[in-house]
């Protein structure tokens, strides 16, 4: 878990993006929702990322112009991964998985809640500010 209390939106976004960049080499699949109802609060690059992610598939049941989902995507296209990294901190729900069932990063409620599964080597690569916010949990 990552403590997010006291962080501004921009600090939470930067934190999420650092964690996703660290996890990227191990990510096999990822997904996010796209709450278009919140779009007025998004910076231009986030809106552009949401547009790209929304264009990946036709809307499914329960989706409309105000709420979309990417579905689980294979991590193979750089532009799609980059859009995910740009947008994920603004989602209600975003996750990235290693091959198999291991969830590497889980974000909820516009990055108010962040859970990560990191190795000791990955933790060593984190910035000091991010490492100080980690709260170890047991599996």
What does the secondary structure layout of this molecule look like, with pairings?
Elements lengths: L8 H15 L5 E6 L9 H11 L13 E2 L3 E2 L3 H10 L5 E5 L5 E6 L4 E4 L3 H6 L2 H4 L8
Antiparallel strand pairs: 1-2, 1-3, 1-4, 4-5, 5-6
Structure description:
With 139 residues, this protein is of the alpha+beta class. 33% of the residues lie in helices and 18% in strands. The protein is built from 5 helices and 6 strands; from the N terminus they run αβαββαβββαα. Strands 1, 2, 3, 4, 5 and 6 form a 6-stranded antiparallel β-sheet that branches. The longest helix is centred in the first third of the chain and has 15 residues. The model has no long low-confidence stretch (mean pLDDT 94).
